[in-house]
Amino acid sequence: MARVILFNKPFGVLSQFTDKGSEGSPRPTLSAFIDAPGFYPAGRLDRDSEGLMVLTDDGKLQARISNPKHKMTKTYLAQIEGTPEPQHIEALRAGVRLKDGMTRPAQVSVATPPDTLWERSPPVRFRKTVPDAWLQISISEGRNRQVRRMCAHVGLPCLRLIRMRIGDWALNDLVPGAWRFAAHSGR
């Protein structure tokens, strides 16, 4: 039976157990938070993004979660610069053409961050003259920096990105840097 770990990856942490690419001082990795031998990340989350990562000890489950052909939905909260207008939302919902091709349609809505949302360290830059807002975006593919690129494409640069859900697994009350074992239905 596959075992699953849910982890709330903090900002600035690499979504791998070793830092093979740094010159000088190593960057923080999953090994600073998770001491569970035999578990590997099912997919990636950019260093400058936060939130839910799923790790498993089962290679088939790892592939099913991370491979876009299985269309596992991933839901994000995106703090964006600017005010989202109906045309921005509709463009994201329809799919946008990025350099690597057309994205699948996304589920997008204007959102309010939950009361339990933690402060980011370092904080997001604040500018008095530029409004910001939050979007909830669900996608079923996983291109490199996809949500950030989609938002930028429609003119709403992403200031902060937090993955809240992967399939049936949700971040819920898991604080940054914390992890827990989770149930796996075997589907």
UniProtKB/TrEMBL annotation:
Its EC number is 5.4.99.-. SUPFAM superfamilies: Pseudouridine synthase (SSF55120). GO terms for molecular function: catalytic activity, acting on RNA; pseudouridine synthase activity; RNA binding. Pfam families: PseudoU_synth_2 (PF00849). GO terms for biological process: pseudouridine synthesis; rRNA processing. InterPro entries: PsdUridine_s_RsuA/RluB/E/F_cat (IPR042092), PsdUridine_synth_cat_dom_sf (IPR020103), PsdUridine_synth_RsuA/RluA (IPR006145), PsdUridine_synth_RsuA/RluB/E/F (IPR000748), PsdUridine_synth_RsuA/RluB_CS (IPR018496), RsuA_PseudoU_synthase (IPR050343), TruA/RsuA/RluB/E/F_N (IPR020094). Belongs to the pseudouridine synthase RsuA family. NCBIfam families: pseudouridine synthase. This is Pseudouridine synthase. It comes from Roseobacter denitrificans (strain ATCC 33942 / OCh 114).
